[in-house]
What we know:
The chain has helices at about 25-35, 40-60, 65-75, 80-105, 110-135, 140-155, 160-175, 180-185, 210-235. It is mainly α. The protein folds into two domains: about 40-105; about 115-240, Orthogonal Bundle (Cd81 Antigen, Extracellular Domain, Chain: A). InterPro entries: Tetraspanin/Peripherin (IPR018499), Tetraspanin_EC2_sf (IPR008952).
Amino acid sequence: xxxxxxxxxxxxxxxxxxxxxxxxxxxxxxxxxxxxxxxxxxxxxxxxxxxxxxxxxxxxxxxxxxxxxxxxxxxxxxxxxxxxxxxxxxxxxxxxxxxxxxxxxxxxxxxxxxxxxxxxxxxxxxxxxxxxxxxxxxxxxxxxxxxxxxxxxxxxxxxxxxxxxxxxxxxxxxxxxxxxxxxxxxxxxxxxxxxxxxxxxxxxxxxxxxxxxxxxxxxxxxxxxxxxxxxxxxxxxxxx
Length: 240
């Protein structure tokens, strides 16, 4: 008599299911990419912050009268950082929309491409905010440019254009000279009336370099904060 021994079947175990060919591969691919389970909150947050950054940067660039001040001071380099942040905000909105579409269509290649764009947008927002702050804060690259323009206006104050520019800047901002009233004394120029307070008659203590830098800094700091928030979202975010 021949006895055939078979391995005992453990209780609670079932033979592996055999589905249609390719079903298991597709299931593993979906789990690897994480399309069906990951929420879209991060992408929505990116789009909202990107839209806010785009809108605020556009406002800085198109604010009525602000472009005239930049032209008078001859500091057009200030807009370089603004242009970079405008581009960053627009690209964030575009790629966030495309990322949502690729997630809904469960297109793995498009999702991996979306991950690559996040690295690029992170670098773009950091560079844009760094350039903007470098041309709008105290002890930054913008101050020597403003000082050069103000001193040129003082030296050529006998010309109508320079005289009108000095009067507009000093009356509107409430400042005197580049770094203070001593600039006029050192250049042997008379102290103009717009350098004096209309109430007390005393000369303004602060120079126009610091006052104008504070004016630019107040505008730029909010755009830089929004850019840093957007960069942080790129770092902490994940594919939808």
